[in-house]
Amino acid sequence: MKDLVSIITPCYNSAEFIEETIQSVLNQTYDNWEWLITDDLSKDNTVEIIRKYDDPRIKLQVLEKNSGAGNARNNSLERATGRYIAFLDSDDFWYPEYLETMTDYMQENNVELVYCNYSRCNEQLQPVLKDFMADKVVTFSNLLKTCRLAPVSTMYDTKRVGKFLFPIKSKREDHVMWLNLLKVIPEGMPINKTLAKYRMRENSVSRKKKNIIKDQYLVYKDFMGFSTVKSFYYTANWAINGFLKYSKIFN
């Protein structure tokens, strides 16, 4: 019997894109999944759209207070009962074979974490940069310098490592969570195949690099407990690698 996959999704004002995201999950060739969607008190009709889908695997909870994506993800994680944890933001997209390919690889190779290539797209899901390539084994050490793991393209095994929650007080909560996970496992393995699409929205916080350098510095200083000098060193590495990651010239 296939192991259950718990899909973790925070959403907020996602009405414009959520139906494409939902359809990408319903089209999965791997059907033993539960989808824990936590709505962060959307002001549009996101909730109404989700409730149109009569599928018992889709488990929606609406928060009483807007409290950010990290808290919404944690709400979903706390409700999750599956062996495997997968992340899908409410504006992103999986190819039909995503869950099957990821779980098969983890089982066949006995690994705790895997990640794959993903397309970097505009709001119409048309590629705007070359695909981000999963071409390196990820470790705690190299993840300090650049975050190669994206929620849309990463899965881990709770049977092997347990659950990892997101820090509420960090605006770089995904990077902190991945670092905490890589502290307890030796490595995450790459699948060099494009299985997902990531929407690079114009108002996305993750694209405003200059505005989050301080937040990235705090990843190292406050959450990893590094010295000031060491924190500046890794922040500089992250900034340089971030430029290379999103530059059309270098990609």
Automatic annotation (TrEMBL):
GO molecular function: hexosyltransferase activity
Keyword field contains Ligase: no
Domain Glycosyltransferase 2-like, first and last residues per copy: 6-123
Keyword set, alphabetical order: Transferase
Keyword Transferase recorded: yes
InterPro entries assigned to the protein according to its UniProt record, in alphabetical order: Glyco_trans_2-like, Nucleotide-diphossugar_trans
Pfam families, alphabetized: Glycos_transf_2 (PF00535)
PANTHER family noted in UniProt: GLYCOSYLTRANSFERASE, UDP-GLCNAC:BETAGAL BETA-1,3-N-ACETYLGLUCOSAMINYLTRANSFERASE-LIKE PROTEIN 1
Protein name: Glycosyltransferase family 2 protein
Organism: Chryseobacterium elymi
Lineage of producing organism: Bacteria, Pseudomonadati, Bacteroidota, Flavobacteriia, Flavobacteriales
